[in-house]
């Protein structure tokens, strides 16, 4: 590390200008963040292979040799089997609950099925196919959002691809560091999307300590939306930050406008955890959907992929009928830091400037000097 605390090992090893990593599903956000000096990681779990191939080529044309990557889900705990056997494992009581939710609330069956494999029974097989595509298209970074990516290290490293893994528990971090994963993302309880039980402020320093003396970098993730938190992450020993929610409300994001508006209005306590969509806890904006699954008498959500199979039609029906009160988005407690819709590059610059100001203040220099 040089004298600049924001010039971390991530910047040294990956050639980015600032230690800000953005997870987003919109490829325009990835390009904007990467070209602003950070690293964009495209969320592509369950996406159709040809759509992903087109996005990879589109991004490559626009970012050149700058660092960027693709995130997929390769869950470790996943009920495997053929579709019919899995269907038979869904209890009738759960089906009745979903049917009555549709009837009582006027939720229609979708006119067409959801595109792509989503989080359903094909997810694991499909993710393995997508990994072949990442190799073929020479994507610089692969990040695994669920499940250890250790099985993929040899193939990836053979062609210079970096492999990153998200972890929510110290024991997951230890296993990935020991396996030689290039970067672990210590993702706290506060984070949007699939999230665990340990807060970012507790998890990050523990994982940093584990990674000391190894080649594995550590990013802090979960609940981060300000420059102060970027500075705090560096102070905890992280090599950078991994962020998701703040990119949803950018100009470039394809998130629907009413959801962007809701993100602006939301407080941290509106980002609640629910297992109703994937079977694993997803932190998301509270909605009629999450409330219905927490109401007295509601059944406990099923494990992945049974729950996504159970709710695929109702969720697609809600989406196609645009029932806004029932629609939601994964979002972290970081939602509290969203106050307006801004260009993604501006979000990168404000994180960095905010952190720089904090470091200046800590060293006694006037803010903004
Ligand atoms: C809308 C949304 C979708 C997400 N989907 C995924 C995903 O598919 N794969 C993944 O690894 N993480 C996913 N995440 C989690 C992010 O990678 C990241 O860990 C998280 O957003 C960090 O917390 P923050 O939202 O408070 O910044 C998602 C997050 C959001 C907000």
Write a brief caption for the model:
The protein is α/β, with parallel strands linked by helices. The chain has helices spanning 9-14, 27-35, 49-63, 83-88, 92-105, 123-136, 153-158, 170-179, 200-211, 227-235, 257-265, 288-294, 306-320, 344-362; strands spanning 20-24, 39-43, 68-73, 141-146, 162-167, 183-187, 193-194, 217-221, 240-243, 271-274, 282-285.
Q: What are the distinct ligands in this entry?
A: flavin mononucleotide
Number of self-contained structural domains: 1
Shape: globular
Q: Biggest sheet, strands in spatial order?
A: 1-2-3-4-5-6-8-9
Order of helices and strands: HEHEHEHHHEHEHEEHEHEHEEHHH
DSSP strand tally: 11
The pLDDT mean sits at 94
CATH topology: TIM Barrel
- Portion of residues within helices: 40-55%
Q: What is the number of helical segments per DSSP (H or I, 4+ residues)?
A: 14
Q: What is the level 1 CATH name?
A: Alpha Beta
pLDDT < 50 runs, ≥5 residues: none
CATH-level-4 superfamily name: Aldolase class I
Largest sheet data: 8 strands, parallel, barrel
CATH architectural category:
Alpha-Beta Barrel
Cα gyration radius (Å)? 20 Å
